[in-house]
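Listing S7. Sequence submitted for prediction.
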Amino acid sequence: MTMVEADAGRAAIRRALKSLRRRHLVEEGAHSPAIEALTRPFAAHALEWKEKAEKHELELQQCYKAQSRLSDQLVTEIEEGKASKALLKEKEALITTLQNELKQTSEENVQLKQSLEEKTKSLDLLIQEHQAAKAELEQALAKLKVSEDENKKLIDRWMLEKMKDAERLNEANAMYEEMVLKLKTAGVGGIQHNAQQEADGIIRRYESGYVETPIPSTCTITIRAHDGGCGSLVFQHNSDKLISGGQDQTVKIWGAYTGALISTLHGCLGSVNDLAVTNDNKFVIAACSSNKLFVWEANGACPRHTLTGHTKKVSAVDASWVKSFVVASSSHDRTIKIWDLHTGFCKSTIMSASNPNSLAFIDGDIICSGHRDGNLRFWDIRSGKCTTQIAAHIDVTSVCVSRSKNFVLTSGRDNVHNLFDVRTLEVCGTFRAMGNRVVGSWGKPCISPDENCIAAGSSDGSVYIWSRLKNEMPTILEGHSSPVLTSAWCGLGPLATSDRNHIYIWT
């Protein structure tokens, strides 16, 4: 395309635009009356429409506000609905859990019901057994009454025999006096002296079975025996050998007249609470705090047996004076065990209702024990049953049987020492003193070999000696520097006592 043609095109366009303008103006002028006619009604209604528009706008604003409130309320209700839905889920879970628990509880209830039925049956059985035991007890009481009557008759017969023996003794004395008179007349002094000694010996042996024991008054020997204290003493039978056990876990044998150490027995575990010697002096037995008993040969060094079976510390031990291989022990596990030294095994176990603090053999098959509940009990080791029970103290700390086995000496925390006659089971002597105080569960008094004296240590370091036959103040031996724990009287005369530091030999 050339420049001329372009210019011509632009000129034609300009002319066309001018024509369109003129035509628009002509049309606008022609239509202006109609437009004005149409505009006048709108102008008249404009104010009304404006008021309506404002009114509608106000209503619209109120609608917007109401919509906003409803929206907020809707949001709140939605949130509450969500919370209610979550709570409903929790409640449903809780209901499920409670249903499971109810099911388990129902099952447990069934099991408890079955258990209750079983226990009810057991209780009925126990009631029947109790009734049977009550019947047996009544029979046993009846037998006991018969036995007591027979015992009374035997005592009466025994007293009659004693009176007859006294008459015979009087006749023997009369014969002796007549013989002495004849010897004096004959002038035979040596024969008279020998006859008098023999007669005195016969009379004394007849009355007591052994020589009268003098009351000791002087400490002749002091022994530093065990580190930590000596808790038990015992003499070998018919010997001056003293055996001691202490906190240092050793057992030592001493010469009572010299204080020399003869031998030491090792291997004990725990402190020694009590000692016993068999009637043939062959074995030494120690009761220990380690729940065990240890058995040595008297001339050995290492234990021959370790007797195990108690579950708590062993409080006491004693050997039968009839059967040398039978030993009894008591423990804080509320049991009394009978042992066979041939095998080292427990032969039987006796259950007790209270802790036995001490025990001793009366004869081959009967033992007595002192208990924490204050009772003195007698047991038949063949049947394992308690044959007799006697209230002795508030708490029995020790029992000691005399050489003839006719008397039992008990001590208690009430600081009283009671002497029981085994033949009548009655108290034949009560011994107490103002200053005499039993040393807890350690204090162990003893009876003299002639059974006429009672020796008991005290917490003030003194040793009190009472006469069984003479109603007089006790003899008091002073010398210990600490509480006297235990005592033992030798059949040959000396008295041994111990405190936490030393052993004293009194003559």
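Caption to Listing S7: primary sequence and predicted structure tokens for the chain studied. Residues 188-210 have pLDDT under 50 and may be disordered. Helices lie at 3-186, 189-208.
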